Amino acid sequence: MKQQHYPHDIKTYQKGIQSDTNKEILGRAENGEHVDALNMRSMSMDGDNMAKKKIKGEDLLYDALDNRCFVEVGPLAGADTYECMMTQEVNGNIIELWASTEPGKYPPFIRINGQIVLMSDALPFNLNYPVQYDKNESCVGGEIYITDNNVSPMVLSVIDMMDNSAMTEGGECTQKYFGDFDPANYSIPVSSELYKPAFVKQESVSTASGYDATFGTSGLVVGSYSYSYRLVTAEGERTPFSPITELIPVARRKTSQFGPQYPYSHTH
Hints:
Layout: E1 40-44, E2 50-54, E3 65-66, E4 74-75, E5 82-90, E6 93-100, E7 109-112, E8 115-119, E9 132-136, E10 143-147, E11 154-157, H1 158-163, E12 214-215, E13 223-225, E14 248-252
């Protein structure tokens, strides 16, 4: 095969990337384009075209401090092991969820505007299960919703966490979200519907014989039956009953004759 050589296409960027959101001219350069940029965001356009928009990058807002309201502020133990699992803004407050790569040694915590407002080994989130989250800004103080498809979803009041860390006027420093934290008080019970029992088949009992033998059972009264079930724990907790089955008939044999002609083997 004959080797082909193409001229180099060199472009110099002196003031960062070129922010071009005009889809009519994006990607229309005859010689192609190469964009290598830092602090940028791709914006979807028609087809495979992507416009690049400059962003400001990241700023360090809060230091890694143990600043719970009842301790003397100091460095956060195990700070280099923590990773941020969630960041969202609720009514102007920046809320973060952090977990450690050594969960048995360093507990997960939530902080608001840089102050730790919840830290407990009972907070049921770790780095093995990425979280999903949402917020509600329409209620007083706002709420956050957190789940990870491993534990029950949790609802936490932003203003209540701030109140109990003395971050608001009239708030007091308490152990509500620290030593006294009980995740059951903030978890949403998950309701799952049980499976519907399926009627598979009706079998003859080996002892069934004679004119008045019951077909398919050795004790049920002739008629129609439906079944449902529920799950019960040793502590007495009970689920709702499952969907009920269709009617299942229990018939009697009307003849002991089993000839090939009606009314014998097909009469019940």
